[in-house]
Amino acid sequence: MIRPLLLILALLLLASCSKESALHFQNLKREAMERQRHSEEVVTGRRMKEAEKKRVWLEIVTEARESFKEIEPIIQNKCFACHDSNTKLPVYGRIFRNHNPVNSHRLDGIRTLDFSTRFPLSAQGNPPQISLLKTIRAVVLDRTMPLKFYRTVFPSKKITMDDEQLILAWIDPLMAKLEEFDLTYVSRNGGVAAESKRILEQKCFRCHANGNDRGQFGGMEDTALLVKNKFIIPKDPENSKLYKIIVKGKMPPDPRQAMTSDELSVVRDWIDSISTSQ
User: Fold this and answer.
1) How many domains does one find in the chain?
2) Are residues 145 and 259 both part of a single domain?
3) Same domain? 180 vs 217
4) How far apart are the C-alpha atoms of 139 and 145, rounded to whole Å?
5) Domain of 248?
6) Cα gap 211→133, rounded to integer Å
7) Does residue 141 share a domain with residue 194?
8) What is the pLDDT of residues 8-65, one digit of tens each?
9) How many angstroms separate the CA atoms of 12 and 131, rounded?
């Protein structure tokens, strides 16, 4: 009698284990399917976000180019000579081109800002569009462009109050849309280094990075180079030349583009986080 009972118990135990194994396998399969579904939803969400980002950017570009037509006669008359790569140099600028100061000045102007595409604007180093727009806004308000000697020779090239109003009416709404676009679609999850780079790109890179070395100071996109050249002292922002220049308000030179206290804090934290081994 004992052997049949043991056999029955063994069969029951085996059936129970098989049932538990089957349930465990089903649970694992369900969890795997849920993870796969979640992963697909994340990928789909990212694709939708990216598609939306491209659509919104295209809308901004299309509207900016259309509204640019309102100021194009002004810009063409007063800026294209130095800031449009499709505009032909006058005869006096083409004589002895390689040694002609007019040609040299124009080449420098195109590197700084090129209106040939209307929008997005072109410039050496591909600085952020909002940085270029802020620069245009500043020179219009300050009447520092066209250059003084050019305005002396051609008085009609001066920016008037009517010109200013029309140009700002193009720039200001566009800047607001770019800032909203940046907040909506540019990730802020890269940590203090990424956020500091974003700030420096908007405030400094136009003159001091990606091939731009105004004042014989460039390479700001290269942290190791900044450390090597003693512009940054890792873990010591207060004694870092770059930070001291910014804090004193010497850079950016336009006070309207000065860094806010929050931006200064981010740059300070970034320098403080840089490894001393760089």
Assistant:
1) 2
2) no
3) no
4) 6
5) 190-278
6) 20
7) no
8) 655 555 566 666 666 666 776 777 777 777 777 677 778 888 999 999 999 999 999 9
9) 76
